[in-house]
């Protein structure tokens, strides 16, 4: 069964175009190295909750939007191989510099997940 890296990111609306351009460049590299899917979704109907929510999870500030993203891999082993290559790719070196990110990387949430149900 496939393996998924998932992300939730607070992105300033004023930097959303820059973020999406970065994402397209990164996505092309991930796909080149073997990722099966690379998805970025900008929050459209994401309300703060009373106990938990995506906005609360990333400490969403005024003027920011929640971005929900995922990358699908063949397996955990392939994910590890691909991510190792991506992180060493010189085309992305500048984009991986935390000081140059178009969002606050300290408030990004991410993790790897074993897919258990896949209904298409």
Low-confidence stretches: none
State the CATH class: Alpha Beta
Instruction: Provide the CATH topology.
Output: Alpha-Beta Plaits
- Characterize the overall form: globular
The amount of helix comes to 25-40%
Strand content: 25-35%
CATH architecture name? 2-Layer Sandwich
Question: Which strand order spans the largest sheet, edge to edge or round the barrel?
Answer: 2-3-1-4
User: What structural class results from the helix and strand content?
Assistant: alpha+beta
CA(first)-CA(last) distance: 14 Å
Computed over alpha carbons, the radius of gyration is 15 Å
Tally the helices: what do you get?
Answer: 3
The largest sheet, given as strand count, sense and whether it forms a barrel, is: 4 strands, antiparallel
> How would you state the average pLDDT, rounded?
95
Number of domains: 1
Structural descriptors:
single chain; alpha+beta; Alpha-Beta Plaits; 3 helices; 4 strands
Quickly describe the structure.
With 120 residues, this protein is α+β, with helices and mostly antiparallel strands.
Describe the structure in your own words.
It is a single chain. With 120 residues, the protein is of the alpha+beta class. It has a single domain (3-114), classed as 2-Layer Sandwich (Alpha-Beta Plaits), CATH 3.30.70. It has three helices and four strands; from the N terminus they run E-H-E-H-E-H-E. It has helices spanning 16-33, 54-57, 76-88; strands at 3-12, 37-42, 64-73, 109-114. It has a four-stranded antiparallel β-sheet. The longest helix has 18 residues, at 16-33. It starts with a strand and ends in a 6-residue tail after the last strand. The mean pLDDT is 95.
